[in-house]
Amino acid sequence: MAPMKLSHIAIVRLSALGDIVNATVVLQFIKQKYPDLKIDWITEEVFAPLLENHPLISSVHTINLKKIKKDKSVSLLKQTVKKLKNLPKYDLIIDMQGLLKSSLVARFIGKKIHGFNKDSAREKLSSLFYASSSHVPYELSVIKRNIALLNDALGLHVNDLMIEKKQVTLPLYEKPSFVEDAYFVFVIGASWKSKIYPKERVVDVCNMLTCKLSFGYKSYIVWGNEQEKADAEFIAAHCENAQTAPKLSLSELCALISHAKLVIGNDTGPTHMAWAYNIPSITLFGPTNERMIYETSKNIAIHSDSKVDIFHIDKNDFSIKNIDPQTITTKAKELLS
């Protein structure tokens, strides 16, 4: 239950890219009910550029838990705790992640914390640090989980129709200077190998879209590491209208996605950006499923024939490779028309 008066709140969502992208939808609905409310966001340092230019966020506060863990740095840990304790005294802190680390971060900031209860959180121990909590089924779409948590915490009344008619959830940027007037984006990377659609099959989809269907659009292949860059170059070499995108910052990636005609990609952050920008998209699933997105008439999922148990994800499920390129092309044609 929300306090009677709110002037300043904090949202804790530390990682990962796709989860942060999906979480930003709540901001516009909070502001609709509390237009003068200041909203701060606490996140991992690497994701700060995604949020720092957001018009609905007052301040972005960063930490670097990955560096603390990697370096086993006690001094950096102490500095981080001190930084968190020196943040403003918030009327409410909302942990949108439901992990032990995010709940601890929230607890260092203050005591008025709301999060998922022990039967809803990804890690049950996180609920021990909350002053109040919500029961939201874990199997629900991540978008609906975020909305349900905020509905309960802040007394909002956001429904499916409001989500479907949402405004763009991320900062707007001008179209990148290197792109054509109309183009596709292919997102070929992912956090696990089993979530990656084979590069040879991406070539098939690329060629079908740009040649057989005669759309005439350039396809830009985005990448995030050297292996993905090599795969992007392979695709570009085997498809006349495909081009490897340059190395992009988070804001440049947002700009590229936000002006695309269509985004096709694996279950990963850059693909989810298309939904955030109301751009048509096709998300390909193998070991994960549609729970990770909010399907609309123009943001759709194509899944392999694998049966997914979201409580026990099989990272050795490589069934995504069995998705027929023709199926993707057919759906793309429907979205574009």
Can you walk through the features of this model?
Helices cover 36% and strands 17% of the residues. The chain has two domains: 8-164, Glycogen Phosphorylase B (Rossmann fold); 183-336, Glycogen Phosphorylase B (Rossmann fold, 3-Layer(aba) Sandwich), CATH 3.40.50.2000. The strands form two sheets. The protein has a six-stranded parallel sheet with strand order 3-2-1-4-5-6, sandwiched between helices. A six-stranded parallel sheet has the order 9-8-7-10-11-12, with helices on both faces. The termini are far apart. The protein is an alpha/beta fold. Helix 11 packs across helix 12 (269-276). It is built from 13 helices and twelve strands. Strand 10 (262-266), helix 12 and strand 11 (281-285) form a beta-alpha-beta unit.
Broad structural category? alpha/beta
* N-to-C SSE string, H for helix and E for strand: EHHEHEHHEHEEHHEHEHEHEHEEH
> How many individual helices?
13
- Count of the domains: 2
Distance between the first and last residues' Cα: 45 Å
CATH topology annotation of the largest domain? Rossmann fold
